[in-house]
Amino acid sequence: MNASRAVRPGVAAAAALLLAACAPGRPVLPTGPGAPFAGVEEAFRQATAACRGVRTWTAEVALSGRSGDIKLRGRLIAALAPGSLFLEAVAPFGRPIFTLVARGGEATLLLPRDRRVLRGAAPADVVEALTGVAVGPDELRALVSGCLAPSDPPPDGRAYPGGWVAVDLADGAVAFLKADRGRWRIEAGLVSGLSVEYREFQRDLPRRLRLRSEPGRSPRVDLTLGLSQVDVNVGVPDEAFVLEATGDLAPMTLEELRAAGPLGERRPGRPW
Predict the structure, then answer these.
(1) What is the 3-state secondary structure (H, E, C) of 196-239?
(2) What is the pLDDT of residues 100-155, one digit of tens each?
(3) Does 109 fall in a domain?
(4) What is the distance of C-alpha 6 from the center of its chain?
(5) Is 13 helix (H, G, I), strand (E, B) or coil?
(6) Does 18 reside within a domain?
(7) What is the domain range of residue 55?
(8) Distance between CA 4 and CA 256 in Å, rounded?
(9) d(CA 164, CA 34)
(10) In CATH, what number is assigned to the domain containing residue 153?
(11) In the prediction, which pLDDT does 264 show?
């Protein structure tokens, strides 16, 4: 089965959300010890009520920005499920630029235009080589659905001026909550060396994300993701996460993919 059809029929209908427009100003996140915030469990429960229940997530993603010195710009079809990932970079005409599937801790990346394939790498390593952002299937599902990172309810939080509440999550992630019309929401966060901003919520799920590397991190990442045709908890067939990469394909290593740099403008020596 064609995996992209299994995930998203009619991809051409959601053509151009390539986000060339200026993004809103970067929020100034609070620092320092803050003040104890006794209502953190209820605030966090409200803020993650929608994203916490997301088991499967499919969308069309307009990606733009930079990773290192390379401009990124394109459209992706995405599907995420527990431990599983499907990403396909759609070209205006012809075959996809790449197809990436991951399941059971192993990823397969197919570059159909160059007849090359990478097999057996860790999903987070392949995503990092393509975009500069190291996230696996479950971390990416939490990130794009608005939960920032997989996490149990936090034990405590810190209140700051301006209505911000900071909540420490697993693995050093920090979620920044604000109340919107009496209901708490994660509006920003720090995770895996990135600052994350959530915008344009629909049904309590974000439709735009801004990802930027924290100061001193390399590569310098500044990506905007525009999400459309978002569906959650719909049936995604298992075969969507299996890639039949057969035929006359040359093997590719993760080191070769990293050396080529993130998905971006075609240049000599790049595999796409």
Answers:
(1) EEEEEEECCEEEEEEEEECCCCCCCEEEEEEEEEEEECCCCCHH
(2) 999 999 999 999 988 999 999 999 999 999 888 899 999 999 999 999 998 887 77
(3) yes
(4) 20
(5) helix
(6) no
(7) 36-260
(8) 26
(9) 10
(10) 2.50.20.10
(11) 53
Query: In angstroms, how far is CA 1 from the centroid of its own chain?
Result: 25
d(CA 250, CA 231): 35
> How far is the C-alpha of 44 from the C-alpha of 147, rounded, in Å?
10
* Burial bucket for residue 44 (CB in 10 Å: 0-12, 13-18, 19+): buried
Query: Could you give the CA distance from residue 145 to residue 141 in angstroms, rounded to a whole number?
Result: 6
Question: What are the angstrom distances between the C-alpha of 177 and each of 30, 43, 102, 167, 244?
Answer: 11, 8, 31, 8, 43
User: How many angstroms separate the CA atoms of 55 and 173, rounded?
Assistant: 21
Length of the chain: 272
> Strand, helix or coil at 120?
strand
Query: What is the C-alpha to C-alpha distance for residues 154 and 95, in angstroms, rounded to an integer?
Result: 45
Q: How many CB atoms lie within 10 A of CB 17?
A: 19
Task: Name the residue among 1, 140, 161, 153 with its Cα closest to residue 79.
Answer: 140
Q: pLDDT averaged over the chain?
A: 85
